[in-house]
Design brief:
Layout lengths: L1 H13 L9 E3 L2 E16 L11 E16 L2 E16 L5 E15 L7 E11 L21 E11 L6 E14 L3 H5 L9 E2 L5 E3 L4 E18 L2 E12 L8 E11 L4 E11 L4 E5 L6 E6 L2 E13 L1
Antiparallel strand pairs: 1-2, 2-3, 2-17, 3-4, 4-5, 5-6, 6-7, 7-8, 8-11, 9-10, 11-12, 12-13, 13-14, 14-17, 15-16
Length: 313
């Protein structure tokens, strides 16, 4: 499974060289393909620095590839987004800072060219590449490849005069699958799956489930614009709630990114990413070694600031 997904990502970036113009026009058929890659590197070195400090270096690799097909009232958009970042500080082992693989595909049809409403279907898949830890503890991974993995499949309506720049999507019927293919994490009930059952002697009598299924309503918004000269804003926002399990508990995923364009190759990025999922519980270590208490679901927040090189492939 891992090999197939990695091959899919590699092939998607080699399919056609990126360009913002239409690369194929046959009658009313248009294909547009674009791929970009970016590398951010940050480094800090101290030599006889009176205030003290720790030498460190970090790197973040970003790849985004999209393909759009449009003919008359039909539009199909697919994209692959992957990010992986690491950090190395003096006297510490290498640590992961970013880890994401996302596949998105949306198809929409409108009845005529006068309306901006589309009947749409959407596919979305997310996971990560490598193990995640609560550093400095590296003995017990808290996440792995396909643990978790998220799958969304649904249908609804989408509004947007220019769907590449602004869109609102409402799906009253969206399937959400949460996959935890690592059995240790599944037995612990991580990411909302049913935990394993044990007898009074702590012998496992029933394995934890490796998947959790939900059916609910999904609302998303995507927006891109140049807010000032050479300053670009990207906003992605989604809300999801399950009809059958705790209806009204809303999963939130909100990402806002500002790209500051220095020139055709150098770009600075400032971003914020907020998540809340009622099925993801956090734990806090107690004074007793290797004993944790459940703190329940908490708001997750990630802030991004970097300067690096970006180019079209």
């Amino acid at each position: 499974m891992r090999f197939c997904l990695i091959v899919l990502v590699i092939l998607s970036f080699q399919f056609v060289k990126a360009q913002d113009s239409v690369v194929k026009v046959l009658d009313t058929v248009k294909w547009v393909q674009k791929s970009t890659a970016g590398l951010d590197i940050n480094e800090v070195t101290f030599v006889n620095w009176n205030a003290g400090g720790s030498n460190s270096v970090s790197a973040l690799l970003k790849l985004v590839s999209s393909l759009r097909y449009k003919r008359e009232n039909l539009i199909w958009k697919s994209s692959v987004r992957t990010r992986y970042g690491v950090n190395k500080q003096e006297s510490q082992r290498l640590r992961k800072t970013e880890d994401e693989l996302e596949l998105i595909s949306t198809i929409g049809y409108r009845k005529d060219t006068l309306t901006n409403w589309y009947y749409s279907g959407r596919f979305n898949f997310k996971t990560q590449y490598s193990n995640g830890y609560t550093y400095p503890n590296r003995d017990n991974p808290i996440s792995r490849f396909m643990a978790p993995g998220y799958l969304f499949i649904g249908g609804g309506v989408e509004y947007g005069k220019n769907l590449e720049k602004l869109s609102f999507y409402l799906s009253p019927l969206t399937f959400k699958g949460t996959f935890v293919l690592d059995q240790d994490l599944a037995d612990a009930g991580s990411f909302g799956v049913q935990a394993a059952e044990y007898d009074e002697f702590q012998n496992r009598i029933k394995k934890g489930e490796n998947a959790r299924t939900e059916m609910g309503v999904l609302i998303t918004n995507a927006f891109e614009a140049e807010v000032f000269e050479n300053i670009y804003l990207r906003n992605q926002f989604s809300l999801y709630t399950d009809y059958l399990n705790s209806f009204g508990n809303i999963d939130v995923d909100w990402e806002v990114v500002l790209d500051f364009k220095v020139n055709d190759y150098v770009k600075a990025t400032l971003g914020s990413h907020i998540r809340y999922d009622n099925d993801i519980k956090t734990q806090q270590e107690t004074t007793v070694v290797d004993v944790f208490v459940d703190r329940g679901a908490r708001l997750q927040w990630k802030q991004i600031l970097g300067v690096g090189v970006t180019m079209d492939l």
